[in-house]
Design brief:
Length: 227
């Protein structure tokens, strides 16, 4: 049996990509990291403690760094470039959570995510806070870019976009979420026809009121069927 003490171990960490739609833009929770440089920001993250699982670490870091609880995360990817962290060799497992519209990251900076590449071409992203570009720590620009690529790759065949919406929503809200993820405007008639043809929405017979737009029909997702 191999003696693990023979080998030097990289540190193991997790990074949390917590997304929300804010002012029509796809945004991520970021935190200031002045210990890594003036006006540097990073995704919420932390090291895995001894005898603690990854899931336990996600819950601990989420509560400690953001004050949020109860979010559903899925594993995004693992990042292990030995040079990704200037402090040493740190392998990080990134996790993704989507905040529905009613759940606000109160008091937490929400940075707008921007990419320059079309479709699912891939590449790093930039983050902007109130229009000002941020300096991102580590390889978090790459992690955010991979996140956008993941969302764009799943948006047409899955229900992932609806995780950024309240339980009941208008077709306008659905389109705004799709446009924020895809980074381009969509033709309203064609988008709505394609959306309704999927058969995953149900008209609630209720109307949205009390906003700047005229009253609009509220929809909800049809529960998925088991096949």
């Amino acid at each position: 049996m191999t003696d693990l003490e023979t080998y030097r171990h990289p540190a193991l960490a997790i990074d949390l990509v917590i997304l929300a739609i804010h002012d029509g833009h796809l945004c991520a929770v970021v935190l200031p990291r002045d210990d890594l440089g003036k006006e540097t920001y990073a995704l919420p993250g932390g090291f895995v403690h001894h005898d603690q699982s990854l899931d336990q670490t996600v819950a601990r870091v989420l509560a400690e760094k953001t004050g949020l609880t109860g979010l559903a995360f899925e594993q995004l990817a693992t990042y292990g470039d030995p040079a990704r962290d200037p402090r040493g060799h740190v392998v990080s497992v990134a996790y993704l959570a989507l905040l529905p519209a009613p759940l606000r990251a109160a008091g937490l900076p929400l940075a707008e995510i921007r990419v320059t590449w079309p479709g699912e071409a891939g590449g790093p992203a930039s983050a902007h806070l109130k229009g000002t570009p941020l300096r991102l720590a580590f390889d978090h620009a790459a992690i955010l870019g991979d996140t956008v690529k993941r969302l764009r790759g799943k948006i047409d065949y899955s229900r992932i976009a609806f995780s950024l919406l309240p339980a009941r929503f208008t077709l306008r809200q659905v389109q705004e979420v799709h446009e924020a993820i895809l980074g381009r405007p969509l033709l309203k008639p064609a988008f709505r026809r394609k959306l309704l043809d999927r058969g995953i929405l149900r008209d609630t017979s209720e109307m949205q009121t009390g906003n700047a737009h005229r009253p609009a029909a509220l929809y909800e997702l049809v529960p998925p069927t088991l096949e």
